[in-house]
Amino acid sequence: MTTLTFDSLNPATGEIVGSHPKQTPDAVHEAVGRAQEAAAWWAALGHAERRRRLLDYKAVLAQHLKELAELVHQETGKPVGDATLELVLTLTHLDWAARNAQKVLGRRRVATGMIGLNLAATLEYLPLGVVAVIGPWNYPVFTPMGSIAYALAAGNAIVFKPSELTPGVGVRLAELFAESVPEHPVLQTVTGLGETGAALAADPRVKKVAFTGSTATAKRVMAACAENLTPIVAECGGKDAFIVDDDADLGAAADACLWGAMANAGQTCVGVERVYVVDAVYESFMRELSGRVSKVKAGEQYGPITMPGQVEIIKRHIDDATKAGKVITGGPGSVRAPYVDPVIVEDVPEDSPAVREETFGPTITVRRTRDAQEALSLANASSYGLGGTIFSRNARRATELARLMRSGMTAINSVISFAGVPSLPFGGIDDSGFGRIHGADGLREFARSKAIARQRFALPGMNLTSFNRGPAELERLVRLVTFLHGRRKR
Ligand code: NDP
Fold first, then answer.
1. Facing residues of 188 across strands?
2. Active site residue 235
């Protein structure tokens, strides 16, 4: 039987970058079967050997950095420089996950408390088994590796389904892994379209699904996982806000805002989409922004829209925003598929699609607010809650605002900086999903806690978990508990 294939295309030129099999549900199930055996072997290697192998994988990836960056460039259309940055960030995460897994997940003693005085308690985090990673195309290395690196370090085997737009990068990540771990297929890539991902998520031997993509697809994946009670991590879209307070460095804020919104053609889940500027500095900030945006061009500083279907959504948002608001830069004519030039529109109503829905393009809406408090209220009035940014010279005030921002991550006086700090967890709330990748939380996301309590000696006259327990033992317990917990402090 011949296997059907599909092509990955260079979105800038339409040229074929590679041809890959559309793996059938049977092929996916075979991969999961192989992963199950590989998972047992990988788990038994232990933390120290896994760390050694993962650091070796990091070195292999670093040695192939240029080749991988070129492939990311071809499949997504993003500039090679941006692809290189994506790979560098990936390496720092892989390094952190490998080096910290034992410390975060390894076996440790925990306190037992007075009533458990005769017990020794230990806690450790064990691997889940097979983890399925379903990834998007916008950061085809950094995003899936945010799950893959941490899940591998936690001792799991991975079956990875890359986006149909970036299969070549996914295949290469697994091929290079086999250079460091040749014995068993601990990291496998299965290629195909949505059905391939659906077959993977529905396999009952998969112990967790790490999904990154749109909120709509996350719901479908979750429904499939419900059949087997398979837990999922859902890293979905966002509508991140950027707040400029009255004491901000406006030049730095405009620079960061522009990059956060337009880099990667705005196809960044934590990209800037809504900008709220405090009245006192509004005009000055807009001057800084307009001065800078004239130098940013699609096809030069950033690439094309990778997914052809997204152009229609971006166009709809721009049409709607420019009708209702005041255009600062660009407009409907900025869409010249596959490229979209920067678009900045102010005073767009807060209930319009351009403000409410994820655009995933190089566009922003800007609104003047009375003060930072109003900016925060508008920022928080979103069904999404992924990232966000605050610009202010007052560190205390900015941190206070950041804590009140309803999102998983907030950057202060920089954009997206949290994603580059491996020890910080990454993930959202509400429509942006749940669960965390990166950091200690990201390691624990792919592990199950194992609790052990061992009785070291029997407490004389205090055998509470026995049918031989008498009234005197209960009385002693009540006296002890009253002594320990019965004093009120006013
Ligand atoms: P999609 O939701 O379209 O697809 C994501 C992945 O799911 C792809 O690999 C896709 O495969 C696969 N898939 C599609 N249908 C199913 C199904 N029924 N069952 C299982 N898998 C399926 O998202 P995009 O690829 O378009 O990515 C863009 C979205 O991802 C944006 O909304 C963005 O905000 C979000 N994102 C979130 C990030 C985060 O960390 N929070 C990071 C990066 C992006 P195929 O491509 O073959 O259809």
1. 159
2. yes
